[in-house]
Write a structure and sequence with these properties.
Oligomer: single chain
Strand content: 15-25%
Number of strands: 7
Largest sheet: 5 strands, mixed
Strand order of the largest sheet: 2-3-6-4-5
Radius of gyration: 30 Å
Distance between the termini: 84 Å
Length: 266
Amino acid sequence: MAKKKSSGGGGANWMDTYGDMVTLLLCFFVLLYSMSTISEDKWKAIVQSFNPSGVIAQLEDIQGGSGPSADENQGGGVFDNPDAAQEEIEEMLEQMAEELKQMAADEGLASAISVELTGGKIYVKFSDTVFFGGNSSTLKPEAKEILLKVCAVLDAGKDAIEEIRIQGHTAQASDSEPNEPYGDRQLASNRSLEVLYFIQTNSSIHPGRLINEGCGQWRPIDDNQGEEGKAPNRRVEMIISGVDLENNSELHEELSQFISLDGGEP
């Protein structure tokens, strides 16, 4: 008796081919999508079709942060024309630097206060003898008079200021041994904080633009050998950064819109 032919196996092999084809089609459409551009109007229509009550706001319309204490002008929002305004910002920075230099000369402190404008930033170095006594973070009365004049200069140019960073620096007390870390950092931080607090309470600069740092002995500008090598390291530095509208606009372009789907304020 002849044997019956067995049916061929692999009846589901066609699924492998089908799966490969679907995967290739998916890759093809992803490639097409990656080379395409998205219409902003169509994107808004899609978002609002899912949530008709959603609010779509342009990032350019949102200045500063989203909290109640954020600076509404943060990021140079006071300048309507970025192309022309960047030149104006640079001129304001130059004027601030010149006024700070003149203030130091008028006070007879040209050797104790140095001012340098470079790379869109003003670097102001105050010798600690101008502001503080030895191992003290209490501002001297004459230091407050100087800082009041500094505040007046900052107020006049505040529209050009992105950030003011205040750093406290100390000297290494011993020629060969580093300072005790906690006390060293604490003294430097307290000194920078005292200067920041005075500026915050005596100027119109938004507090969100003020930052203090305690560097301690670890960013010296001299060798800490003998009093001559230590004195320059005892200082407070103020770094005033100007608004950079070009970089801000690139950020706005990268994050082209802010979408709030809950209908509330962003």
